[in-house]
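Dear support,

I submitted the protein below through the web form. The confirmation email said the job was done, but the results page showed an empty box. After a refresh the structure appeared. I'm attaching both so you can tell me whether what I see now is the final result or a partial one.
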Amino acid sequence: MKTVMSRVLLMCVLAVFLSAGACAMETAATEFSDVSIDQDADVTLRLQKADKEEVEELDSRYFEAERGTLTYTNASEGQRLTLFITDEEITDDDQLFTATILDFREQTAQGDTVEINFYPAKLSHDTVYYIYLSASAVEGKEAFRSLVATMRYKDYYLGDLNGNREIDSEDSLFVLEMSAASTLEDYEDWQVKAADVDRSGEIDPQDALYIMEKAADPDMSFPSAA
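What the results page shows now:
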């Protein structure tokens, strides 16, 4: 039944394919993937979207920033910890003067566990970022700088399945194909999330219809964003 509905809707979509335009994008959703943490670095990493009120307390360049919390569990009281994020791996000290630093945080340990919040600004789609942690020398411990984690950042827009930053008939056709597929394993996670425009938990012909309506009427909001 699902396949029959998809084919019927596909015929309707093809009938208006040439007449439907593209529309501007709404606010992007985001996700981090391929997160890799050094198991010997005594750290854990939690990544999430910073809420609006929290971001407004920071300067304007962090608007719509991502938020991360790094927890280090092998600190000593009084130890100075520095966290910074770059878009390239640092292999020598000279790179520190030329690398793009997306965020830089310092904190003094009050005990053996330290939480450092960071807000990397202006992340780029499908880019790998490197998180470094350095610590000052204290009694019984040497200073160090270590790559503690890497992560790939991806942004996506509801209804934009091909990543061209527009919602058009091609996206609707893409979702129809997904709705008829026996498995979604061949699609990327961000595409699965972008396809479910009504946030029903399923990808079905109704999602494709909403996308087609959005392509024809840029002022329309998806049900999940109404």
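Response: this is the final, complete result; the empty box was a page-load delay. The longest strand covers residues 144-156.
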